[in-house]
Amino acid sequence: MTDTGKKENIFSPADDRADSANAAYAGEVRAGFPSPAESIPERKLDLNSYLIKHPSSTFFLKVEGTSMINDGFDDGDLIIVDKSIEPYEGCVAVCFIDGEFTLKRVEKKGNSFLLKPANPKFKPIAVTEENRFDIWGIVTYAIKKIR
Known about the structure:
Blueprint: E1 10-11, E2 22-25, E3 43-46, H1 47-51, E4 58-62, E5 78-82, E6 92-97, E7 100-109, E8 112-116, E9 125-127, E10 133-143
């Protein structure tokens, strides 16, 4: 999400689990040496149940821009943000500063915060008492399209 303050890119998960996306779940796949071919039983996996622990405080946001690209957040990715998680040192968060949203890694510096981008083309944002600032929610997952 870029520093535009746009709210049209904020989506809530479906409240009715019966209508949520159920895809076939075939188990795990090795990323190392291949495993012997086995019969794969088909089960259903509800992505909302798997990815969302607090439905009433969880939102989807579309990432716009490249300030977090070196942390794996690309332009167009969909992120899952949980507002019920307490911010912690080094978390990736959607922050609201002076009327705009931004996606950054959060570091506490004394009584203030430093919002760190993950792209050297962008500068960190030092948050002081003069700023209107809130950590809006913590990123729990990123969903990305592979080419």
